[in-house]
From TrEMBL:
The lineage of its organism: Bacteria, Pseudomonadati, Myxococcota, Myxococcia, Myxococcales. Residues 38-463 form the Amidase domain. The keyword Transmembrane helix does not apply. It comes from the Bacteria. This is 6-aminohexanoate-cyclic-dimer hydrolase. Belongs to the amidase family. Keywords: Hydrolase. The keyword Cell membrane does not apply.
Length: 496
């Protein structure tokens, strides 16, 4: 396929902050070795220089960010650190487009407890990152914003729906960015872009504004993509629920720090997707390397068939509920603007899902929810037999732009999604924590994520494992071809 080849960014001017993670940048501010304005100015310069090659931002407001940087300094763990928020999260003072022409450029309808937690953590939101329309597709190439490109290969997608955040962090525009996950939308872009991506347990994070009665609300979590494990852990600590009604006991800082003596884990390893597909050979190689690394770290690995559930029923239920989620909005637009206006405001895939939900027989939505609950119970029972599980994050390599375009027939998009998301949705359905760890790169330089999961509430166990993997097989020295990051120093880097 023919894909536009964007101009490569100009040579990088001196930037002492680009290669630092968010924790290190916050430390510079805390010790008065840098000001928030210096950090924000440097991030804006990187965005302006490298951003156009990726098209990862839906909106940017330098004046607002600089005003925040000049204002009173928050006392949170990331005080003064520049940040980007996915355009499915309403951030007061910034536009809220949800990847749609219908809302593009509209002011945020209000805030949320999660957005407030980001502000209280001291993060300065510079702009919004691109996402698929309403987060419905596992790519980031909308009719509203155009295609977001993967910095490892600009002809490929960064995946989705948090593709803009993943592309921006992988290219070093900011050290970490907000992401959300309803079936893999943190973990899959993290895999495609060579980042660390943790999806927390259901109920761990504060409310991000999604109505509790939305059909897929049970599956959605908000967190981030990052270049280091410690940034993800610190943000989890800052945004978790600590109220009396929280469904999980709050985590303490000591729970999320690297362990002096990591525990020995029993890890189930499987390679088949929910539909029984075998992964690409390079993905299999990454899985084998990750397994060997876990064994070198002292863990026991066990061959497994993986969780067993009705994959067809889950896929049908997921897309029916996605359609039921957007159907009221489509009906509202149809009533206000007329049927003829719909194709100019909403994407073909969105409209088709809504129409299918509208045609569904009575009782279809409760039945679909029941199918997900049943599958989630199967996953919960499976994972209870192990400390953790290991599988690929996605069974294929990062895919070319256009393959999952929202303008393609809906059945083609669904069929490809069933391949792409062959591992990750069941963890969202069961509400268990899961993470993609960047442990493998192909000979051609494409990242391959390895996926670990544990039981509900066991983020501390996963992060303990992630720290050890990061230490044993560091990935921060890797740089994509399109990047604002300086070349790493020469050194004896280890790999999985």
């Amino acid at each position: 396929m023919d894909t536009p080849s964007p101009a490569r960014p100009a040579a990088s001017p001196p930037d002492p902050f680009a290669e630092l993670d968010a924790t290190a940048q916050a430390e510079l501010v805390r010790t008065r070795r840098a000001t928030p304005l210096e950090l924000v100015d440097a991030a804006i310069a990187r965005i302006e220089r490298v951003g156009p090659a990726l098209n990862a931002l839906a909106a940017i407001d330098p004046d607002r960010a600089r005003a925040a940087a000049r204002g009173p300094l928050r006392e949170g763990p990331f005080a003064g650190v520049p940040f980007l928020a996915k355009d499915l999260l309403a951030v007061p003072g910034l536009p809220y487009g949800a990847g749609s022409r219908l809302l593009h450029g509209q002011p945020a309808p209000g805030g949320s407890a999660y957005a407030q937690a980001l502000e209280d953590a001291g993060l300065i939101v510079v702009g919004k990152t691109t996402t698929s329309e309403f987060g419905l597709l596992g790519t980031t190439e909308t009719l509203a914003c155009g295609a977001t490109r993967n910095p490892w290969d600009v002809a490929r997608s960064p995946a989705g729906s948090s593709g803009g955040s993943a592309a921006a962090v992988a290219a070093g525009l900011v050290p970490m960015a907000h992401a959300s996950d309803g079936g893999g939308s943190i973990r899959i872009p993290a895999s495609a872009c060579g980042l660390f991506g943790l999806k927390p347990s259901r109920g761990r994070e504060r409310d991000a504004g999604l109505p509790a009665g939305a059909p897929l609300a049970m599956m959605v979590n908000d967190h981030c993509v990052s270049r280091t494990v410690r940034d993800s852990a610190a943000l989890l600590l800052a945004t978790q629920r600590v109220d009396a009604a929280a469904p999980l006991p709050p985590l303490a800082a000591r729970d999320l720090a690297p362990a002096a003596r990591p525990r020995r884990l029993r890890i189930a390893v499987y390679d088949r997707t929910a539909f029984g597909l075998v992964p690409h050979p390079e993905v299999s190689a990454g899985l084998a390397a990750a397994r060997a690394l876990c064994e070198r770290l002292g863990h026991e690995t066990v061959d497994s068939a993986g969780p067993r559930f009705d994959a067809r029923a889950v896929s049908d239920a997921f897309f029916l509920l996605a359609g039921a989620t957007v159907a009221p909005l489509v009906a509202q637009v149809r009533q206000a603007a007329g049927v003829a206006a719909l194709p100019s405001l909403l994407e073909p895939f969105t409209l088709e899902l809504a129409e299918r939900a509208e045609r569904a027989p009575p009782g279809a939505v409760p039945a679909a929810i029941g199918a997900l609950v049943q599958a989630g119970a199967a996953m919960t029972a499976f994972i209870a037999g192990f400390d953790a599980t290991l599988c690929p994050t996605i069974p294929i390599l990062p895919f070319e732009l256009g393959v999952l375009s929202p303008a393609r027939p809906a059945d083609a998009c669904i069929a490809f999604t069933e391949v792409l998301a062959g591992y990750t949705p069941i963890h969202s359905i069961a509400g268990v924590p899961a993470m993609s760890v960047p442990l493998h790169w192909t000979a051609g330089g494409l990242p391959v994520g390895c996926h670990f999961a544990a039981g509900v509430g066991r983020e501390a166990l996963l992060l303990e494992l992630a720290y050890a993997l990061e230490e044993a097989a560091p990935w921060r020295h890797r740089r994509p071809p399109v990047s604002a990051l300086p070349k790493p120093p020469e050194g004896p880097w280890r790999s999985a």
